[in-house]
Q: What sequence folds into this?
């Protein structure tokens, strides 16, 4: 449903890119780029958070003793890693839907 909210030009470009990435995966015996690997490589790039989200997360960091800052840094790294994993899952799902003719 979110995909349908994209304007026509952006949707066409994204479908073109998905089609290309699917063609790349068809040679996975040689290039080792299965859809899973492609999603890992391109997921964070295609699904990166908006600048507004980045600005909000940066402004919410408390400035206190170094122990608290270190915990905050670890929390942020964990959150970013989890976000990247979700991005990969979304891109993988879109690629599989497109490959099966269900994303048009």
A:
């Amino acid at each position: 449903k979110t995909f349908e909210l994209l304007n026509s030009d952006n949707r066409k470009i994204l479908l073109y890119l998905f089609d290309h990435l699917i063609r790349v995966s068809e040679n996975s015996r040689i290039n080792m780029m299965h859809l899973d690997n492609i999603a890992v490589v391109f997921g964070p790039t295609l699904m990166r958070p908006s600048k507004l989200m980045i600005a909000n997360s940066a402004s919410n960091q408390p400035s206190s003793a170094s122990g608290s800052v270190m915990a905050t840094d670890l929390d942020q790294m964990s959150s970013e890693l989890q976000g990247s994993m979700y991005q990969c899952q979304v891109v993988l799902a879109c690629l599989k839907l497109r490959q099966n003719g269900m994303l048009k």
